[in-house]
Amino acid sequence: MASRITETLADLSEFEAAKLANDVLHLYRTTVMQQWVTRGWTEQEAQGDELSLWGPMTWLKELVVKGLTSRSDLKNRFEAVDDMGRSFHLPYPHTYELFRVVEKSAELSAGRNPSVSFLAALRRSLRSDGWAAGGIESLSEDQLASPVLNPGEAWADRALADTAGPDRAWPCLLRHALTARATKPSAAWTAKAKAHIKDVGPEEFRRTVVRWLPSVREPRSVPLVHNSPVAFPGMLDPYNAVALRGLVWMLGLVEEDRDAVQALGGLLEFCLREVPGMGPRHPRLANAVVHTLAGYKGAASLAELARLSHQITWKPTLKSIRAALHSCAESMGVSREDLEEITVPTHFLTRVGSGESTVGVHTAVISVRDGRGVLTWRHPTGRITRAAPGEVRLKRAADVKELNARVKEIDKTLRAETRRLERLLASRRTWTFSSWCERYADHPLLGTLTRRLLWNVEGRTYGYADGRWRDHEGTPLEADARATVSLWHPVGQDAGCVEIWRNRLLRHDVSQPFQQADREIYRINEEERRTRTHSNRFAARTLHQHQFSKLAASRGWRYGLRMAVDDEYPPAMIDFPAWGLRAEYWVEGVEYDVGVSGSFLTVRTDQIRFYPAEAPENYAHAGGRPYRMPDGHVEPQPLDAVPELVFSEVLRDVSFFVGVAGVKDDQSD
């Protein structure tokens, strides 16, 4: 019988033979599982019977290998293997057998290693869940270890080109980076990393890796077929991503550098950029960036963490960033709010809204106009142009690149600071006049936002006009250094005074960074006075859940995606620590509308409630059973006892959620 099978195998291609072995195994396993169900076997009995099948299965595998080694058409086998390398993952469930066939017959026995493309596909498959077993992983890395990274990604191609040569320091460092598979680096891993960095040279290491990191965002140089449900266009190579995580950790072992901090921040944002239907691109790599930035504890890294805390919405990473900022603030003996304010970078601006740099005989002028950075050039003749002079582009290209990068960083910081300032509207935060001038009014970058807003100084409102802070009558501001300053809000203001300020801003052509003078105000209506403890104003609406989740996070709300499972979830919530309150917006999943990931695609809204900050959280079943407090019962606050400002800001946010994330054909109204 064995000879007949061997003869049959001689007529099969390599992949057909490997598939035959796996199909036989799959048939045996399916039979066992069917018997398990029909006969009511226990799990232990089923596993025991399944293990008894490994004898004939192993015999079949060896027969396949013998049959293939007797063949001479290695060229066809090489081509088949190369074709496999065009896939992101090797075809399931034949990866195991295909590797064994290639290792024992078609490739190594012929005196050559598998093609680089096949090796890369094998490495990617082994990095996927479920393949790192059976000793295949160690064989692929120990016996087939070249090249050290999978080519095909822009950053990996650059790294392989930069580290090619007889010097083994860089390859050894990259191999150590490939062992960064834990959540955080261990002491032993860190000690070895320091030794590798010393061999390469700390300055060269930092400069080289910082040059690689922006390339992570570039498209693949070698397109692949995404033949796996967990693969998607633009996905990072899981094998190379481990090396990236190791390199990011290693950057934390050298001295902090502004370029490194900016490169790491850009990498984090890229990793958390959501892919439709798949979620963030690579959260684990983003967490490694947070670990490195938090370890620096310098002004540049703290400023970058503060910016990211107001820019990203992915909750696990955002939680890590906030924890890092809180820890740094405690170690410095300041509040987190103070830390965020004192670490805002100037980006080399020397006065409010502008800065200059000399480049040869020309002058580069960076200014901030309407919340955006602008780069212009002043020629020796005094002429101003937007484009860099020709001789500067030719002879000082690196300087031009650096200035353009500086403008982009200004835009990023201004976007994050605009969000932070808007959240201060409901925080009751105050400053002394001297600290407010230093951190806001006269800050080279923040001053461009501060001077477009209205502020209360000892209870009187001031705005910036004609080079001075003035009240609505035009009287210049004169204040003591210890005078109290707060951000102005239209709630509680006289309607006539609000109208005066709106007209004044319009007359001076002031475009505010966010709605302040024109901010919508929500007050309790008659129906809410009857319901007393909750508002139904935005109830019975249908929202796109994923869009609602992102909008909620951008406004500082806490919300976890509801999955169609037997579990309980809290409502969407936002805290107002200064007021001792928590607001809740109750939602439930729409049963018939579930996505492929198992999450509800839409949710139905219900009440808005307010609770004391220390009250236990409410929970409701994902499918829509009533909310309850498992850890006790606390009555919600009467709406007429909720501060006007808090009530207005919460309903303004909810109105925004409903207006943007609402299902357009919802006929709730």
Total DSSP E strands: 17
Structural class: alpha+beta
Please give the share of residues in helix. Answer: 40-55%
Q: Determine Rg (CA atoms, Å).
A: 31 Å
Give the low-confidence spans. Answer: 28-74, 93-97, 101-109, 130-143
Strand arrangement, major sheet = 7-11-8-9-10
Provide structural commentary:
The protein has 669 residues and is an alpha+beta fold. The protein is 47% helix and 12% strand. It has 26 helices and 17 strands. Strands 7-11-8-9-10 form a five-stranded antiparallel sheet. A four-stranded antiparallel sheet has the order 3-4-5-6, with helices on one face. The longest helix has 27 residues, at 397-423.
SSE map:
Layout: H1 2-10, H2 14-39, H3 43-51, H4 54-69, H5 74-84, H6 95-106, H7 116-126, H8 136-142, H9 154-162, H10 169-177, H11 187-200, H12 202-212, H13 238-251, H14 258-271, E1 274-275, E2 279-280, H15 283-296, H16 299-309, H17 315-332, H18 336-342, E3 354-359, E4 362-369, E5 372-378, E6 384-385, H19 390-395, H20 397-423, E7 430-432, H21 433-441, H22 447-450, E8 455-457, E9 460-465, E10 468-470, E11 484-487, H23 495-507, H24 526-531, E12 542-544, H25 545-554, E13 568-569, E14 572-576, E15 581-589, E16 602-612, E17 620-621, H26 644-661
Antiparallel strand pairs: 1-2, 3-4, 4-5, 5-6, 7-11, 8-9, 8-11, 9-10, 12-16, 13-17, 14-15, 15-16
Helix pairs in contact: 1-4, 2-3, 2-4, 2-6, 4-6, 5-7, 7-8, 10-11, 10-13, 13-15, 14-15, 14-16, 15-16, 15-17, 16-17, 16-20, 17-18, 25-26
